[in-house]
Amino acid sequence: MNKKNLSKLTLILSGIKNRFLENEAIFKEITITYTSGLKHFTGKAVYSNDNKLAFNFNGKTDLFTIDSLIEAIINNCVSYDSLELIYSERGTNVLVTADDKNVNIKNINIIEKSSEKDKTSTLLNRNYLIKIGPANDLLKAIDIMTKDNKVKNDKIRKYNQIDHFIELIDSTLDSISRNKHITILDCGCGKSYLTFALNYYLTEVKKVKCSFIGIDISEAVIQKSKSIAQTLGYRNMDFYAMDIHDYKPDRKINMVISLHACDTATDMALALGIRLESDAIIAVPCCHKEMLSQYSYEPFKDILKHGIFKARFADVLTDGMRSLMLEAKGYDVTPVEYISPLETPKNLLIRAIKKTDSNEEAMDSYMKLMADLNVYPALYDFLQTY
Where is the Methyltransferase domain (predicted)? Predict the structure, then answer.
């Protein structure tokens, strides 16, 4: 390759280096093919566990920094007629071609089409956001798909719930992700299946720069989440086995999510989101026990003497007061039905977006309800304590 085009290639590859440094967490690989006459020589660089790039070329694997790899690529070009380099990130490829006539670069969006027999729409007659084909690696890692690319019959409902969750918060993601890197904190993350799906959707479908933090008290589920992240190559995720109360972020948290955290664990997550002034808070509450043993309301005594009515009213009261506290703290709150009540009566999703510093009228209403109902909600207690 002539010196003039080598100089052009050097400039382009310096841009590739900068892209790597900026997007290192979503880097996948660099594939290089040199051509000499009719012969082709291919090498591949992948991310190594020691934060370097393992480059296999001509039967030998060496470790490089991004700077030294770019230098090696340029040096090798002197011995060949042309170069084709594909720089791969999650969801996007960059193609660089160079020879004695031209040096070119272009972005290639990765679009994988599912086969006719695997079309997602055949499952539940809906257009999925997490599509079979492009998302196969994810779906296998979270145990929804078999090795031969078939959604498991007993996982269709789970697949539907994960996809519907992302559909419900899609507009919220848009409102907080404009022109910035966002960080999402999952409180009581468990095996993090929804978070992995959200990571895929943001990174590879919406092309949003993002990072994720998962917290759970169980060391076993944290290790499982770490293992899945490593399998998928999702390096923009960190997981910690710890109590929510002990978590202190080292960066701005843009969204706090709490999915099926039992009883007052949901309140812990909401309190943390409020305290961190998170741009958005998403909660799917699970069981409700605390308020049931506390509240009383004289005008309803002849109705609430029936246990089933008292329990159901406790559910509404618990999530209603959670929503009111979020409003008092300046959030615009929308409770929506998450999944069909035929599947579970615990089917509520609370979606909150930070709009103002506070709402005094909502706080006055909250305090009056505490007095009228003789309750002291965990969310209020956590906010006072922490």
Answer: 157-293
